[in-house]
Amino acid sequence: MLALTRKKGESLVINNNIEVTVLEIRGDQVKIGITAPKEVPVYRKEVYLQIQNENKAALNTETLNTETLEALKGLL
Rounded CA gap, 22 and 39, in Å? Predict the structure, then answer.
């Protein structure tokens, strides 16, 4: 992990096309702005993890359905 110190109004650039700017600092909260191309998804980590978990569950369900269909075909 790279740790950087930034002040309000200062930015950092990631991969030449993503800019993260510190917009506001209030107590223990920091408001940041992210400028990125539309094709680059940006998520809060808790939302990203939820999406990952739902994708895994859907994949397990799809695999289960495929196995069930194959087993049913074997009965016919």
Answer: 22
